[in-house]
Amino acid sequence: MNDNEQLKRRFTDDERSRLVDYFSLLIEIDQQEKARYAKLKDSPQGYPMDGEGHQCGLCFKPIHGDTSGWFDKWGFKCSNCQDAVNRRKIPGSLCGDYSHEKSIPDTVLASKLNISVWTVRMKIKGGEISGRRIPGGPYIILRKDNPTLAKVLSSLA
What we know:
Elements: H1 3-7, H2 13-39, E1 47-50, E2 68-72, E3 75-78, H3 79-86, E4 103-105, H4 106-113, H5 117-125, E5 132-133, E6 139-142, H6 149-156
Antiparallel strand pairs: 1-2, 2-3, 4-6, 5-6
């Protein structure tokens, strides 16, 4: 029996119903996202947005309660990260770098390496890693600021 024959089977009514619900949810999320970007035509500098249920595109912290954030051409950010972008401490283009190709917060790096955040911050304070501090938030480690990052990280792991 080849792979194609194994994949051919009929979906149950429950599976079809769940698939329809899933795609309906995806369509709803896509429409909301398109509406957010369409609103930028009226407010090109961005606008405040209710943060409930969102995650900051820079520091990746979840937003809860009455906390609001900011939405602009780079996406959603918490108020701390938006302030850092406004003060030009962090480039806004890093927002939404979910694959961490350009940057990574120290908290995420520590989690991925299974080490303490304080260990990473000691390397930053010692000058082995260059990090940009978000006031009231984590350090953002940019790849372009750290050409020897892989060597430093290999000594940590």
